[in-house]
Amino acid sequence: MSQSLLENLTARRDKMAVIGLGYVGLPVALAFARHFSVIGFDIKTERVNRLRRHCDPNGEIAASDFEGRDIVFTDKPEDMAAARFYVVCVPTPVDEHSVPDLGPLLRATETIAHQLKKGDYVVYESTTYPGCTEEDCIPVLERISGLKSGADFKVGYSPERINPGDQEHSLDKIIKVVAGCDSEALEVISSVYSLICPAGIHRASSIKVAEAAKIIENTQRDVNIALMNELSRIFQRLGINTYEVLEAARTKWNFLNFTPGLVGGHCISVDPYYLTYKAREVGYEPEVITSGRRINDDMGPYVAQRTVQLLTQMGKDPGRSRVLVMGTTFKENVSDLRNSKVIDLIRELHQFSVHVDVVDPLAQPEEMMQEYRIPLLHQPAGRYDAIVVAVAHRQYRSLTESYFYELANVPALLVDLKGLYRGKIQRLSYWSL
Predict the structure, then answer these.
(1) Are residues 311 and 335 in the same domain?
(2) How far is Cα 319 from Cα 188, in angstroms, rounded to an integer?
(3) CA dist 194 to 54, 178, 201, 294, Å?
(4) Do 91 and 155 share a structural domain?
(5) Residue 389 dihedral angles phi and psi, to the nearest 5°
């Protein structure tokens, strides 16, 4: 049955559906649409309409990449009735208490369950804790469809590894981890993904192993960045520059290349909470992971407090000071504002009654206002007592001290979170992590 499904997909007699068309789902859907007939589903009507016009709302994929792909975009669940192979790429966020929010994942699962037929496949790419697919998702599929996993339909897991803004590690250049509910499922899922992942397939021994592998990828990064952030706070007190220390340390062959900074977005700052949640559920209190999260979550307020401290040392009254924050997205070279830790920095400055102007060459003012109720200017307005370069957008990398000096209410401070201008600032006060 499974082999005939693969043959039918390849012959385009059967269809594939990709659920969730954001950073992860859209490149997956377009890659599969080279080989199969694909139904791209998203609950956001405006997103679907833009995709029909070959416009990626995230600005990651060019219009030309839509050309020649066998794909239709829809926001109507019933349009997926013809699908036999489902790929779930919806977000897995945390709530305001940093508790995993499975709402989007379970709603997507319910949508699929209403369409599920004997012989169908459901593969999850959404990041979650080990056990979620089998303990939370499969029961929903079985309850609504009336079918039995393994016997009537197959389930798999293939964790996403999409890195927004990274053109080097694209889907076709990375090894893809896959797992199935049984050996037959593993074979079919591996064969399907091998068509879009020529770099190779790693077959995990179980769905739970594949889930765990994904969750520790970003947890490892989070903990290492937290170490760099803690070191930066120590070195600040010692009066030495963190980036100079790292530059020296990197001359050792096995030194890991991490840098301090604000850790936001949908992966590194979120995924560890899924692991700590599951760890507590099985009776273990994680210490290193939670310490890393605490350090990284505190970095926005720390930068703001240090900025205010330095302004005060310069003889400036924070309540009468004007600060320009350059860059608000969750990482460099992307337009996505969701879960940006720059917002924590801005809000902490507001607590000191500092006037803050915000600019970003990639973010949308309407989204900034809707998401955070913070105005986003098209360009700086007037002169500033401090300028905070918070995100290392490519547009900022070539700026010179003259640019900042023209914006400065001298004496003024330049805060360079990513060390872009180290050794290049002479006429302004300078501080970086």
Answers:
(1) yes
(2) 63
(3) 26, 10, 6, 39
(4) yes
(5) -90, 100
Q: Each residue of 16-60: pLDDT tens digit?
A: 999 999 999 999 999 999 999 999 999 999 999 999 999 998 888
Longest CA pairwise span in the chain (Å): 77
Q: Which class for 378: exposed (0-12), middle (13-18), buried (19 or more C-beta within 10 A)? A: exposed
If asked whether residues 292 and 325 sit together in one domain, one would say no
Identify whether 267 is a catalytic site residue.
yes
Q: What tokens were used for 292?
A: 């890393």
Note the pLDDT of residue 178. 98
Last residue of a domain, one of 278, 297, 316: 297
> Helical H runs in 11-101?
25-32, 45-52
The boundaries of the domain holding residue 404 are 298-433
Rounded to the nearest 10 degrees, what angle do helices 207-238 and 288-297 cross at? 50
60 and 131 belong to one structural domain = yes
CA 77-83-85 angle, to 5 degrees, is: 115
Do 113 and 249 lie in one domain? The reply is no
Tell me, rounded to whole angstroms, the distance of Cα 140 from its chain centroid: 27
Backbone angles phi, psi at 115, to 5 degrees: -105, -10
Q: What's the chain's average pLDDT?
A: 95
- Domain CATH code at residue 27: 3.40.50.720
Q: Total structural domains in the chain?
A: 3
pLDDT digits (tens, 9 = 90+) for 265-296: 888 889 999 999 999 999 999 999 999 999 99
Rg from Cα positions in the chain = 24
401-412: pLDDT as tens digits: 999 999 999 999
Residue where a domain stops, chosen among 240, 263, 297: 297
Sheet architecture: strand order including 83-88? 71-74, 37-41, 15-19, 83-88, 121-124, 154-157, 176-180, 201-203
The pLDDT tens digits for 201-233 are: 999 999 999 999 999 999 999 999 999 999 999
Angle, alpha carbons 287-288-292 (nearest 5°): 115
Strands 71-74, 37-41: pairing is: parallel
**Residue 130 and residue 211 in contact, taking contact as beta carbons nearer than 8 Å:** yes
Tokens of 346: 């801005």
Strand partners, 357: 324
* The pLDDT value given to residue 405: 98
Q: What is the mean pLDDT of residues 179-195?
A: 96
Task: Summarize the confidence of residues 137-143 as an average pLDDT.
Answer: 98
CB 357, CB 309: distance < 8 Å: no
The residue from 89, 132, 137, 267 that is catalytic is 267
* Integer Cα distance of 186 and 137 in angstroms: 18
